[in-house]
Amino acid sequence: MEQPGPAAPALRSLLPPRDFVCARKGQLLLAQAVLSFIIFICYIASQAASFMMAPLLEFLLALFLFFAYGSKLNEKFKGLYWPLTDFLRCVTAAIIYFAISIAAVSKYSDGASKAAGVFGFIATIVFAIDFYVTFNDLVAFLKQGSSDSPEQRKSE
């Protein structure tokens, strides 16, 4: 076997840990990034090139959040409530993907537009699963916060 060179540890430090990639959130973010990239490529090759900006932005956002959650940036930077921003991103992405997928499938007749539409429907489902999971986490967090606050107010 070959010994890894000096660049191998540096490259491994850029990758998220294995436990995050195997976790549900890591898999959802990875699926969102891959699907958004495929949809972006399909829109570039199609007549519906005007729709390519939404998948590009979602690809970049999903990739950023994948590495941010993987490197635990959300725990280091507390100025932003990460689950709420992720929830809003997933809701808007699901709505936008659903709308542009319907437009791509119904309005354009080339194969790349149809493929982008089909992948867009799959991405809509993945984003919907992600915002459902994130919504359940938000509700649990809000219930925990609301149950603590009346007791604290009574004690004060």
UniProtKB/TrEMBL annotation:
Keywords: Membrane, Transmembrane, Transmembrane helix. The keyword Transmembrane helix applies. PROSITE patterns: MARVEL. The keyword DNA repair does not apply. It is found in: Membrane. Residues 20-139 form the MARVEL domain. One of its GO terms (cellular component) is membrane. InterPro entries: Marvel, MARVEL-CKLF_proteins. The chain crosses the membrane at residues 28-46, 52-69, 90-109, 115-135. It is a multi-pass membrane protein. PANTHER family: CKLF-LIKE MARVEL TRANSMEMBRANE DOMAIN-CONTAINING PROTEIN 3, MARVEL-CONTAINING POTENTIAL LIPID RAFT-ASSOCIATED PROTEIN. This is CKLF3 protein. It comes from Centropus unirufus.
